[in-house]
């Protein structure tokens, strides 16, 4: 499990008998602050944990702390006190939806904050002058051992054709990192009497936003329209390479991004679930095209 540990420095004379607390919170904001109406904020507190730091509930020397906390406690003196939080396993990672070019403020974001404040009790109203904030990020790491490379086969039947079209698509591995090309091997065996006019390969980002219902937003973050044709009775085997990058999606509203601190740059959101889709267009009549989606793979 993930943990957060730190040290808070207090001045008992400034506190004047008040207590000092540290709070860890995870907040889901789904609207700008200036959109808040009728006293209802467009935000939801997903998780809140509060620890009393001063006066200490446990003797400072007897409390468990990390090596870094021990160094800070020795350096800062007797008015420094350690704190410790443990993340629940089910909390989401830091992520946000990219606003449009003309949007201002945060549109939709999951963010984490460590806040220290002084008050008579943790339920009392806290003044801004008695509070300090520190934004943090929760990131996920890919497992060290990669699984089997995803692969799938599917068949398309056509009216007035005795034989079908077979499509096989596979990736060269299961896990990809930011900036790494994704190689998709597509194998088409067209035993039908129809002509395949085009093969389109895309990497789709699927973001599920949970408000009053589970709303999913699908955005193609990398796409190649090859123009490759497969005549009736012919076959094609080819590897297509796509590299999803934020720089190619910078102006697109609603793209999910990894959480960032202040004005630091970030990446396209790391996947908790990804869907790879291959499109094949077939010509049924002279000016009529029909699109068929084949789901290649879905993995966590």
From TrEMBL:
GO molecular function, one term: G protein-coupled receptor binding
Alphabetized Pfam families for the sequence: Arrestin_C (PF02752), Arrestin_N (PF00339)
Residue intervals of the Arrestin C-terminal-like domain: 161-290
UniProt record, GO biological process: G protein-coupled receptor internalization; nervous system development; signal transduction
Single GO cellular component term: photoreceptor inner segment
Domain of life: Eukaryota
Coiled coil regions, renumbered to chain: none
Record InterPro entries: Arrestin, Arrestin-like_C, Arrestin-like_N, Arrestin_C-like, Arrestin_CS, Arrestin_N, Ig_E-set
Family membership noted in the UniProt record: Belongs to the arrestin family.
Name of the protein: S-arrestin
Lineage of the species this protein comes from: Eukaryota, Metazoa, Chordata, Craniata, Vertebrata
